[in-house]
Amino acid sequence: TILVDRPFHVGDWVKINEVEGTIEGLGFRSTRIRTFYNSLIVVPNSILLTATVDNMGLRQYRRISFKLGVTYQTSPAHLEAYCEGIRELIRQHPHTRKDYYHVYFNDFGPSALSILVYCFLEVPDWGKELEQRHALLMDMMRLAYKLNIDFAYPTQTVHVQQETAPLPSLAN
Question: Residue 140 has what DSSP assignment?
Answer without folding.
Answer: H
